[in-house]
Design goal:
The protein has a single domain, classed as Growth Hormone, Chain: A. Helices cover about 80% and strands about 0% of the residues. α4 runs parallel beside α6 and α16 packs antiparallel against α17.
Length: about 550
């Protein structure tokens, strides 16, 4: 054993840490792009004349498309080679960033965000696979994937901070344009240093299944956004909801009849696995939804500049960065479900504390945000560990895909749900001055734009009532996020009492198990890349 370890270290690629740096930079671009727009939204809305509904689509379409495509991109990487798919995704991401930066209107920006999501979905599974191929020593691989996990969990919380810093000196398009030089630097480095994997043309790629998930999620999001409008079209909301549910139901039925499914739903019978998925999904939803409205309130209601808003948000991502590795160390002494429960309860307490202090002095808010960050960071680490530890080796690839989708889908759910709650409560509680109505009910941004053209007294009255209505909606969002975190903690606690279902992937679905085992044996795909994740959390 010792001789094998020494030989592995001796033959290790001396450029492996440079490769880790390259894929970590790409991963940072992916996760930051989910939230970097939050601080840019007020200025973007003003410059492009974006409606409240379009604003949510600009933010949310990225996570929705990534969530839909992630499940199939790992298999596509097996077919084409992960280095090739990674570089293609990087190139697509760079072109899409340039298009987004100079978008002339909302429709063009939404289309550019879809293209960004395509590039992100191509890169994300490949990053783990490249790490798996590059790091042949198990201990070093655990450290490398631990770094990967820290970038993934902390980068999203850092997005609004980066956006605020850029907007202090540049226009809103800079939050996208900053990606272009990074891509131009990473592409030649990736071509030169990242090792190539052997393509496997026999691996099936279920494009139809990925599209079914993506379309179903987008239709459901459309229905939810329609309900949040000031003038709801019940017909559009109903049709969107029915069509979305039908598409997702079709996806489930199709997967159950396929020999090589993207998801074998029997894996959710395992209590630890289902608790981990629920924790990642709803913690992500609470974080993304809260940050969306938080950054807007700081600028539109409190009158902060983008850089001031960024600094105000900073305690949350810093606490999350610290809590992730700490939770990994604690997992050596505390079981994953128990730590998940404690972390979710801490996050709920932090969110609830912020609900009670958001309109008060700064210090209680900073403390609450820090507690929230600690809870969210620990939850994500514990959830990741629980998901991977509860899956058998032949299902590791499927578990890893579900893990990635849970976080991305949680972000999409949070933005859709919290944005719709904010818009709906704002529209219903706005007491507009006489003679001023219509578009001012869509959003606070629209009300402030209208106020710019009104007489001083009327403008002041409109601004006051609009900010008051926004704060009412804001409180509803924070309260919803608090309940979501505490309810998820309760689910994890109750779910612990269930006996975990026996994992017999090959017995329940022989073709699925065979496919996953083949991916692990080939050393490619997110399966083999993510298999050591449980070791990371206890390292």
């Amino acid at each position: 054993m010792q001789r094998t370890h020494s030989n592995a270290v001796a033959t290790a690629d001396p450029r492996r840490w440079l490769v880790l740096g390259i894929v970590s930079i790409a991963l940072l671009l992916i996760v930051v792009d989910m939230t970097v727009l939050y601080t840019a939204l007020p200025r973007l809305t003003h410059d492009l004349g974006v409606s409240a509904s379009a604003k949510l689509w600009i933010v949310n379409v990225y996570a929705l498309v990534v969530s839909g495509l992630l499940l199939g991109m790992g298999t596509l990487g097996d077919r084409l080679g992960h280095k090739r798919l990674f570089m293609m995704g990087l190139a697509v991401f760079g072109v899409a960033s340039l298009a987004a930066a100079y978008s002339p209107g909302a429709a063009a920006l939404i289309a550019a965000r879809v293209l960004l999501a395509l590039g992100a979905a191509m890169m994300m599974p490949a990053t783990l696979s490249i790490i798996r191929l590059t790091f042949t020593n198990e201990r070093e691989r655990s450290v490398a994937i631990g770094i990967w996990a820290s970038v993934a969990s902390g980068g999203a919380a850092l997005g609004p901070v980066i956006g605020g810093v850029l907007l202090e000196h540049f226009w809103w398009g800079s939050v996208f344009l900053i990606n272009v030089p990074i891509v131009l630097l990473a592409l030649p480095l990736a071509w030169r240093f990242i090792p190539a994997s052997r393509p496997n043309a026999e691996r099936p790629w279920d494009l139809v299944g990925s599209l079914q998930v993506m379309v179903g999620l987008i239709l459901c999001a459309y229905a939810l956004k329609e309900l949040g409008k000031a003038t709801t079209s019940w017909l559009h909301a109903g049709v969107g909801c029915v069509a979305g549910v039908a598409m997702l139901t079709w996806f489930v039925r199709r997967q159950r009849s396929r020999p090589y499914p993207l998801i074998d739903f029997s894996i959710f019978r395992n209590a630890t696995f289902s608790s981990g998925v629920a924790a990642a999904l709803f913690a992500g939803a609470a974080l993304f939804g809260m940050e969306l409205v938080f950054s807007q309130r700081l600028q539109l209601v409190m009158g902060m500049s983008p850089i001031e808003a960024a600094l105000f948000i900073l305690p949350l991502p810093l606490a999350a960065f610290v809590a992730g590795p700490l939770a990994g160390w604690l997992l050596g002494y505390i079981r994953g479900p128990r730590l998940m429960f404690v972390a979710l309860a801490v996050a709920g307490a932090g969110m609830g504390g912020y609900l009670l202090s958001y309109d008060g002095s700064v210090m209680p808010q900073m403390i609450s945000l820090s507690v929230l960050g600690v809870g969210i960071g620990a939850t994500m680490t514990a959830a990741s560990s629980s998901i991977m530890q509860s899956a058998t080796p032949e299902r590791a690839g499927m578990a890893a895909s579900i893990e990635e989708v849970s976080y991305e889908l949680g972000g999409a759910l949070g933005v859709t749900l919290m944005g719709s709650i904010l818009t709906g409560v704002y529209a219903q509680t706005l007491a507009a001055p006489e003679g001023v109505d219509g578009i001012v009910r869509d959003s606070l941004d629209d009300a402030l734009i209208v106020a710019e053209s009104l007489p001083a007294d009327l403008a002041a009255a409109l601004t006051h009532v609009a900010k008051t209505a926004f704060d009412t909606g804001y409180a509803a969002v924070i309260a919803t996020a608090t309940v979501m975190l505490l309810a998820t903690a309760g689910f994890v606690l109750l779910n612990r009492s269930r006996r975990p279902a026996p994992e017999s992937g090959s017995a329940q679905n022989p073709a699925s198990a065979s496919a996953s085992a083949s991916a692990s044996a080939s050393g490619s795909g997110s399966a083999s890349a993510s298999a050591p994740a449980s070791a990371v959390t206890s390292a």
